[in-house]
Amino acid sequence: MSPEPYVLFFDSLNLSRVSIPGPSGSLAVFSRSHPHRVLAALAQRFKASHLMAFSVGFSRFVISSEPDTAKEILNSSAFADRPVKESAYELLFHRAMGFAPYGEYWRNLRRIASTHLFSPRRIAGFVGVRVGIGMKIVKKIKSVAMSSAGGEVDVKKVIHFGSLNNVMTTVFGESYDFDEVNGDGCFLERLVSEGYELLGIFNWSDHFGVLRWFDFQGVRKRCRALVSEVNTFVGSIIEKHKMKASNNLDGEENDFVDVLLGLQKDEKLSDSDMIAVLWEMIFRGTDTVAILVEWVLARMVLHQDIQAKLFKEIASVTSNNTRSLSDSDISKLPYLQAIVKETLRLHPPGPLLSWARLAIHDVNVGPNLIPAGTIAMVNMWSITHDAKIWTDPEEFKPERFTEGEDVSIMGSDLRLAPFGAGRRVCPGKAMGLATVHLWVAQMIQNFEWVKGSCDVDLTEVLKLSMEMKKPLKCKAVPRNVCFG
């Protein structure tokens, strides 16, 4: 793929003691569907895997496609801030964990997340929700397969609604019927879909400040209309929780709203900040899980031998499938965990680690001086497809994690850090993985996944996350399990 069509104007970054290689001109890669691939090709062309510089409009960027340099960037306090897109600011996410400026307010949010929201005790407390919704997804798949032509299932559509209910139950303590026309479920789905689209749009105004006056893409107008609806929707849920709390003498906490309302003075959030924090969790937690499960199942359709091996492993811990799975079984399923890791390696949901970092002050990365205000990125897709790091990087081989060296995916090893690393690592990674592992195991225990009328197309498209361009549609053949 030639990078020349993407070069527009402006010079690349050349302000460091040691010149950083990169294309001269301003790149429009982020308006394309595969920016991670284009940037990887450019880094290879300029021999700049450690660090490459480029510009988009008036925004200066550096990007690393090498684990050690990536770790230096992500673990540095100098890169503890995030550049705030116009859509994120208008949707109030600058008051939520993902985009809040580095400082005391952000530190308080991280403390709340690690201590109250995503602690091991809290994750374990939601096991019933995960198991129950997983089984509802199984029943929905059976129903769809029986009623559809050829028994085919639109995988992401089913799992998306299950994932949305999982997040809503965890965050708000409420579930929704998405089949009810004009019901609350349809209204919620519209809000989530609109927010997801707005956060994923490439907005030229983010890189050409003068364009913000015009809002020619309509991003600001749409964001403000959405925020008004979100404030009303989430605000009403918070008010219901306040009324419940006033009558709840034992102070029982059932969901994230209860937790936030129960915080003590030093940690307490305003209602508007609470709305921002909770709404961001819905965006982060819904499609990330659904997209990853879809990628895993696509691989299972393509690799029937691997699917059979996983089913055999599941049978070995469930007394030959005479009982359903639970969270406690996951630690006994190393091949399942290897399959999820290998899927994350080949299809990282955030190939550019979703949201970049912003240099708070001038800082050295290796021999290079990076000026304050420079946006730093990590091309995780390039790292996970690098033949110098991985043997046969284009091959789907879960055994690389069971027979070879194990690799942590929680942020300590930048060869595979799909959830980021350092201060801005995803706080909900453990809860998300718990959900994905359980649901994939439930899907494989209950169905044999086989090709439908169309071949599986692994072409990806990068929106807010890296999705399958053509949603997976395949057959889910019920297995003969002895429970249900």
UniProtKB/TrEMBL annotation:
An individual GO BP term: reproductive structure development
GO molecular function: heme binding; iron ion binding; monooxygenase activity; oxidoreductase activity, acting on paired donors, with incorporation or reduction of molecular oxygen
Keyword flag Aminoacyl-tRNA synthetase: no
Gene3D superfamilies on file: Cytochrome P450
Keyword Nucleotide-binding attributed: no
Cofactor(s) listed in the protein's UniProt record: heme
Top-level taxon of origin: Eukaryota
Positions annotated to bind heme: 426
InterPro entries, A to Z: Cyt_P450, Cyt_P450_CS, Cyt_P450_E_grp-I, Cyt_P450_sf, Cytochrome_P450_78A
Keywords recorded for this protein, A-Z: Developmental protein, Growth regulation, Heme, Iron, Metal-binding, Monooxygenase, Oxidoreductase
Entries under CDD domains matching the protein: CYP78
Similarity annotation: Belongs to the cytochrome P450 family.
PANTHER family: CYTOCHROME P450 78A5 (PTHR47946:SF26), CYTOCHROME P450 78A7-RELATED (PTHR47946)
Name of this protein: BnaC08g40210D protein
Source lineage: Eukaryota, Viridiplantae, Streptophyta, Embryophyta, Tracheophyta
Recorded name of the encoding gene: BnaC08g40210D
